[in-house]
Amino acid sequence: MGESMMLAARRIALRWVPILGVLAIGCGGDASTGDGGGTQGGVGLPDDGVGSDGSGGGDDSSGGAGTGSDAGVGEPGECDAPPPEPFGIPTDPTCQTEPAVGMFAPVVEWTKYDWIDLPTSRSSVTTPIVAQITDDNGDGLIDEDDTPDIIYVTYETNGVLRAMSGDGSAEILSVPVSGFNRTTLIAAADIDNDGIVEIIGIDSAKRVVALEHDGTPKWTSAALGNHVSTYDNAPAISDMDGDGNVEIIAGRAILDSAGNLIAAGDHGKGSGAGNGSAAMSFAVDVDGDGQQEVVVGDALYRMDGTAIWSNGEPDGYPAVADFDLDGIPEIVVVWSNNIRLQRSTDGAVLWTAPVPGGNGGPPTIADYDGDGLPEIGIAGTSTYTVWEGDGTEVWSNPTQDASSGITGSAVFDFEGDGVADVVYADETRLWIYAGHNGAVKLEFEEHSSGTRLEYPVIADVDGDGEVEIAYVNEAYNGGIRGLTVIGDANHSWQPGRKIWNQHAYHITNIADDGTIPANAAPNWGQFNNFRSGHVGPNDGLAIPGVQVFGADPCDGSCEDNLRTMYFQIGNGGAGQLSTEVEVEIYGIADDGVETLLDTLLFNPPLEAGDTTDGLPVEVDPLLYPSVRAEAHASELICNPGVAVVEVAVPGCPEWPPPAG
Does pTM surpass 0.90? Predict the structure, then answer.
């Protein structure tokens, strides 16, 4: 396997930097005593249930509820043959977390240095993308059930489109593409409605190039001239008019899904005018009229290329989010050593600030500090800096990027603590910073780059239910080349998507199967981030609680001497329950022997104060006169533990009925 080693068989521990402090969670009740702490992870106590340790109790209406609001509180469903309906439970507004520490143990999962085909092309400064392009499970389909693939461009002389299986097990693509080179950026989506993504790039002749998922050429557009920049052009894919057919945005040009030019604007193209030219435009529906607009630094274009407004400011790298939570997004623009925030309605500038150290790359937006409001992160020549939405600087860390000073970054809430951690690569290191204060969580020296606008991406690249970090390297001030994938040694990182499809990545713009929604929901309405992979609720430090309830069965729930029992999951915490909950059902025999009968799965989300519909399980009351349900959460919850309820299983009427 040569230099690459693939590293699938070994996991290299990285040097990570612990942050002073401990994980703290506020919440009513005590999970260890089964005292009915309502948001504990926790104990549900309808009817005759017992606490999680068998020592507690509770009244029928509490369901183990805590001290939060009782508004809308109900009880488990009455005896009915249909599943019990949801009911309200008390919530605990004190269920808050603080930034997590001590749970961050990154390791190298695998690297890719050497290739069998075209082995001299190994370096890359392309932001990698993640999508499914192979049928890994042999079911004849390429879909979310397959292992994701990581796609990027390598170079030494000419550019080569590469793809690796996300688990590091196989080389998928090695396709030389004329006009692809060191500065080529790519995107992926299903542009022809065939159910499989295509790959889009912009070549050195300023043409948009489309390739099938297997690297077969699909089409090449006419040259776009001054509508794009000389290099570092990042294509973006959207359905601008909601007709089910995608458009491709390249600078200020808009193309249809066959590569024909629809229109082009007359102003900016999303160029930061720093080190190089670049085009970082994208399309979103900023005004809520059902039609998307192309966002650049100094203008907003309709699909016909006309400007809704142009503000006369310098063009720059844009991003969008709702900073004042009024439902209307603002536009962040980075250009030549400066950052500004401007209204999306008319381009009016709200504030400007200098970028410490100069230059500045494409902005990243997320709730860095868990206050429920978005902040802005920008990498410059010698710093990574975070600003509040009002222009106040939060923190700034020293970095090394004199080669370009225009790299990007990504963010993710790895520990599920409501704080977005920053993932950034400069010339010599991969950094991970705590979002709230910039504390260094990882300083990894196995990285080398002369840098352009690339950044690490964060996705579940191997389909294991937790995210990984994928980043590229080139031989610059060091001999490291290729692709590196980092995961967590303790498998504790939060789940994430299996797709990251373009440089201007925003979650609602791309479906899990690689299709583009015809009417994409505003990303700022649900997630309020940009270049973030975190799909959890935008509720800051609030966290959920997990409870389980068992409803009283009725005579109508018996068939063939099996009684259908119903269990319901409740969220008595302060935040949304956003990941799966497994409910294990154990039958308890007369002699106390327990048998796992079934595992029920709750699919999120579940808002605070809500319960689910009844989840059914069939039980033979002759074998098991009682059952116990254990609800296992997969995210950070109040009073972490196992939510438990034990209920009696009444015998069924005599079966079969007596003859005559």
Answer: no
